[in-house]
Amino acid sequence: MSNKEKKEFSRIKEVESTNLARDEIRDEVIETKKAVEKENDQLASRVHQNFLDNNIKSFDIVGAIGSGKTALLERIAEKLSPKFRMLVICGDITTRVDADRIEKHNTETIQINTGRECALNAYHIHQIIKNKDLQNYDIIFIENVGNLICPSEFILGTDKRITVVSITEGEWVIEKHPMLFKMSDIAVINKIDLKERLGTNIEKMIADAKRFNPKIEVITTSAKTGENIDNLLKLLGF
Amino acid sequence: MNEELTKIEQIIINPKAIKKSDVQDLMKTFFAKLKNRIENYVGDYPTFIEPVYLEDNVKIGDDVLLGPNVYVGINSEIRDYVEISNTIIFDNVKVGKNFKLENCIVAKNSSFNFTDLNIKNNLLMGVANLKTELENYGL
Fold this sequence. Notes:
The complex is a heterodimer of chains A (238) and B (139).
Chain A: H1 3-12, H2 26-53, E1 57-63, H3 69-80, E2 86-92, H4 97-103, E3 108-113, H5 122-130, E4 139-143, E5 160-166, H6 173-176, H7 178-182, E6 186-190, H8 195-198, H9 202-212, E7 217-220, H10 229-236
Parallel strand pairs in A: 1-4, 1-5, 2-3, 2-4, 5-6, 6-7
Chain B: H1 2-11, H2 20-33, E1 42-43, E2 47-49, E3 52-54, E4 59-60, E5 65-66, E6 70-72, E7 77-78, E8 83-85, E9 87-89, E10 94-95, E11 99-102, E12 105-106, E13 111-112, E14 117-120, E15 122-125, E16 127-128, E17 135-138
Parallel strand pairs in B: 1-4, 2-5, 3-6, 4-7, 5-8, 6-9, 7-10, 8-11, 9-12, 11-14, 12-15, 13-16
Antiparallel strand pairs in B: 15-17
Helix pairs in contact in B: 1-2
C-alpha cells in the first residue's frame, strides 16, 4: 500500500460510510471497519471482566447534549457517594465542565476530551482503568459524549447502558434514534417537571422505547426537582 | 511536580547508569501529582485522557491521543497519528508520525523524523532520521 493510500485508509477508519472509499480500497475499508468493531467489543469484554473481578457495578450513560446526563449523575452521586466509593469517567469534546460539577459531590472524576472522536470507546476506558487500582471503587459511571448516534457503535464494558432523553427534545426523539434504545437497559425520560408547559407526548416516548426494546425499563425523572431519582436508583440496583 | 522532573532529567544524563526502579518510582510519583494543563497548544482537537500537562507552544498534529499521564515540554511537537501514555517528553522534542509511546521518557532536544514506532518502557534520545538510528535504553 502506498503512503497516500495508507493515509486515506487510516482516515476512513473513522468515517461512517464506506461509500466514501474509492472502489479500489472499498473491500479493505469494510474489513477494517469490521476489525475495529470486533476489537472494541473484545476490549469491552475485558474491561467488563475487570470490573466484575473487582466487584464493581458499572453503568454508562448516553444521551443528547443537554438531556440531563450530568444533572442526573450529580443527583446519583449525591445519594450514593456517602455509602459507596464512586468513580465517574466523563467524556466531552472539550472542557472539564461535567467532571467539575460531579466532583463537588464527593466523587472522583476523570475527564476524557475526545476532540474529533464523537463517542467514547472501550479503548479509552481500558486506558484509564489500566492505571487505577480498581479495588478502590464500588461503582463506576461513564458519562458519554452528548450524542444519540455514535455511542451505539461502541460498547464500553459496563453492566448496563442507560440512555437519557429529555421531553424538551420532543416526542419523536426516541423513534428517530432506535439503535441506542435497542442496546440500552434503561431509558430515562428527563425534565418531566416541564411536562405541563411543553405538552410533549410522553406516552408515545415510552411506547417507542418499549417497541424497539421490550426488555428496556423506562422511567421519567426530573434531575432538577429530584422526582423519581430514588426509583432510578432502585432500577440501578441500589 | 518540578522536583521529580528535575531529578529524572538529572538521571537520564547518564542513561547507561540508570537504576530502573528509581526512575519508575519517580515517574509514578510525578504522575500521581500531575494536573491537567491543555488549554494552550497549537493544533486541531486531539483526544486527551487526563491528566495531560502541556507546557507552552506545544504543537499537536491530527488524530493524536494523549494520556493518561503525559507531560510535554516547551516547544515540543507531536505529529499526526501519535498515541502517548504514561510518558514524559522533555523540551524541544519532535515525535511522530504514527508513534505509539507507553511508559517512556523522551530526552530534551530529541528529534525522530521517521514514521511508525511502537515502543514501551524506554528512554529515547538524540536525533534519528531512520528507525535504525534510534538511541534508546530500557527503563
